[in-house]
Amino acid sequence: MPLVVRPSRIHAVGVFTTTPIRKGARVVEYAGPRITPEEADRLYDGAPRTYLYGLEDGKTVIDGEGLGAYLNHSCDPNCEVDEIKGRVWIFALRNIAAGEELVWDYNLYDDEEPAPCHCGSPKCRGTMYSREWMARVRRREARRKKSSDVEKPPRRHARSKNPAQGWEKEGRNAEPYPLR
Ligand SMILES: [Zn+2]
Predict the structure, then answer these.
(1) Distance CA 115, CA 127 (A)
(2) pLDDT tens digits, residue range 99-131?
(3) What's the CA-to-centroid distance between 121 and ligand 1, angstroms?
(4) Ligand 1 centre distance from Cα of residue 105 (Å)
(5) How many other CB atoms are there within 10 angstroms of residue 121's CB atom?
(6) Rounded to the nearest whole angstrom, what is the distance from the C-alpha of residue 77 to the centroid of ligand 1?
(7) pTM of this prediction?
């Protein structure tokens, strides 16, 4: 698939297609070394931008590299990711015209550092975190206000297909949270 990296309106540079892409087409792999969440924590503690992608097993994170990891986020995406037998691919959500930037919804999770979105879409939710994660953060904040517990948030965020995903261990006061 002829893809190029060019300056992007959304963020610094993005990945663009030079030819039309048909809906459903497999566009590019989200490739990179496989590491554990613990390694991701160690490598990227406090990093402002990472290319981590959490697999569905909750135990594996792709440390993304190459074109597949460089797609920008949008709240109104033209691509989606899918995990097939442990590999992650980017697929076209709709027909995409030559010259369009390829974007997908990162659904970030597992961090509380701000990740404001500047995708410019009328559907923009203002953050690259998933709605589910933001709801979880709000619940946790409400809980903190009620108690004197100091719960240190993890300092790393990863992208995910599954917006409800999270690999952190919950404390004993944690409320039940559906992972699936
Ligand atoms: Zn947005």
Answers:
(1) 6
(2) 999 999 999 887 777 889 999 999 999 999 999
(3) 6
(4) 9
(5) 14
(6) 9
(7) 0.78
